[in-house]
Design a protein that fits this description.
single chain, 326 residues, alpha/beta, Rossmann fold, 2 domains, 7-stranded mixed sheet, 43% helix
C-alpha cells in the first residue's frame, strides 16, 4: 500500500466558518497517527509558490472558535493549467508531501480531481461551503453558521419592517443553490423565498404578489438567492416599483457578512468529525473522494459525483413556507 508519511492541507475558494476547526482536526489526527502535517497557505496558489510550513499540535491551538481560515485562501488561475499543476507537483516532491487534504467546494474538488489523476496523488476533500450545494452530504461545514447569521439579521430587519410598513427583499448567497434562502426563510418567518431551483424569478415574484401578501399584514420579508437571471434582488425591487407602486420596497444585501463570525457548535462538531474522517480515509488508502455526512453518519463520496450531481432542495419546504406565511 502507498505509504503516507506527510499530509499537506490547504483551504481553497470561498472561506466558511468552521474551516479552522477542520484544520485543527486534520492536524491533530495526523500527528496522533504518527504522520507529519504541512500547511499550505493560500490554497493551490501556495502549492505552486511554495508557501508551506510544517504544523505541530500547538500551531492549531485556540483556533476552533475562529472564523475564516488561518491558512488564507485564494483562487489560482495557474493551477487550472497543466504547467501550473506540474509546478505544484514539484513543490510536493520537494516538501516530501505524500498526500493532500483539501477544504473547499466544487471548484476546489474539481482541481483536486484533475491533479490527483495526473500525478497519482491521494487526495481527500472536506466540504467547506456556506451554500451547502455539494451532492452526497447532508451538510457542508459553514452552512449552519451562515444560516444562523442570516436569521439574526432578518430578525433585526423585521423590527424596522414592522415599524415602517415596508416590503423588504433580503439577498443571501447561493448563486446556483437555494438552500440558504429557503431554510433561512423558514427559520426567520419570512413570507417567501425566491430560489434558482424553482421556475424563473419572474414566475415566483408574480406568485408572491398574488398569494403571498395579505391585507392583514402591514410588512413582509422575502429572502432572495443572489444573482438570479432577472437582475437579482435589485431587478425584483425595480419590478415592484413599476408594477406594484403601492408597496414601499427596500433592498438589503447581506453579502460577505454571511461568511464571517465564529462557527456555531454544529459546525465545530461537523468539522472535527470530518477532519478525523479525512485523515482516516487517506491512511486507509482512499483517494479522490470527499468525506460527507448522511443521516449523521460519515460517508465517502467520489469527487466525480460530488462535483457533477445536483443536490436537490426539499420541495416540501416551499409548501410549508407558503402555508405558514398566511
Amino acid at each position: 500500500m502507498y505509504k503516507i508519511n506527510c499530509i499537506g492541507i490547504l483551504t481553497s475558494g470561498g472561506d466558511a466558518p468552521g474551516m479552522n476547526a477542520a484544520i485543527r482536526s486534520v492536524t491533530r489526527t495526523a500527528i496522533f497517527n504518527g504522520v507529519k502535517v504541512k500547511a499550505i497557505y493560500r490554497g493551490y496558489k501556495g502549492l505552486i509558490t511554495g508557501e508551506i510550513k510544517e504544523f505541530h499540535t500547538e500551531d492549531v491551538s485556540n483556533i476552533i472558535q475562529r472564523g475564516g481560515t488561518i491558512l488564507k485562501t485564494a483562487r489560482s488561475q495557474d493551477f487550472s493549467t497543466a504547467e501550473g499543476r506540474r509546478v505544484a507537483y514539484e513543490t510536493m516532491q520537494r516538501e516530501n508531501i505524500d498526500a493532500l487534504i483539501v477544504m473547499g467546494g466544487d471548484g476546489t474538488f474539481t482541481g483536486a480531481r484533475v491533479f490527483g489523476q495526473e500525478y497519482n496523488i491521494p487526495i481527500v476533500g472536506v466540504p467547506c461551503t456556506i451554500d451547502n450545494d455539494l451532492w452526497g452530504t447532508d451538510f457542508t461545514i459553514g452552512y449552519d453558521t451562515a444560516m444562523n447569521t442570516i436569521v439574526e439579521a432578518v430578525d433585526k430587519i423585521r423590527d424596522t419592517a414592522n415599524s415602517h410598513e415596508r416590503l423588504f427583499f433580503v439577498e443571501v448567497m447561493g448563486r446556483d443553490a437555494g438552500f440558504l434562502a429557503l431554510n433561512s426563510a423558514l427559520a426567520s418567518g419570512a413570507e417567501a423565498a425566491i430560489i434558482p431551483e424553482r421556475l424563473t424569478a419572474e414566475d415566483q415574484l408574480e406568485e408572491l404578489i398574488k398569494n403571498g401578501f395579505r391585507k392583514s399584514k402591514n410588512s413582509s420579508i422575502v429572502i432572495v438567492a443572489e444573482n438570479l437571471t432577472n437582475g437579482g434582488v435589485q431587478g425584483l425591487a425595480e419590478r415592484i416599483h413599476q408594477e406594484y407602486p403601492q408597496y414601499d420596497v427596500r433592498v438589503i444585501i447581506l453579502g460577505h457578512l454571511q461568511r464571517g463570525g465564529s462557527p456555531k457548535a454544529y459546525d465545530r462538531i461537523l468539522a472535527s468529525r470530518m477532519g478525523v474522517a479525512a485523515v482516516d480515509a487517506l491512511l486507509d488508502g482512499q483517494r479522490s473522494i470527499m468525506v460527507g455526512v448522511v443521516n449523521d453518519k460519515i460517508i465517502h463520496v467520489p469527487f466525480s459525483k460530488a462535483i457533477k450531481d445536483d443536490k436537490p432542495v426539499d420541495s416540501d419546504k416551499l409548501g410549508i413556507l407558503q402555508i405558514l406565511s398566511i
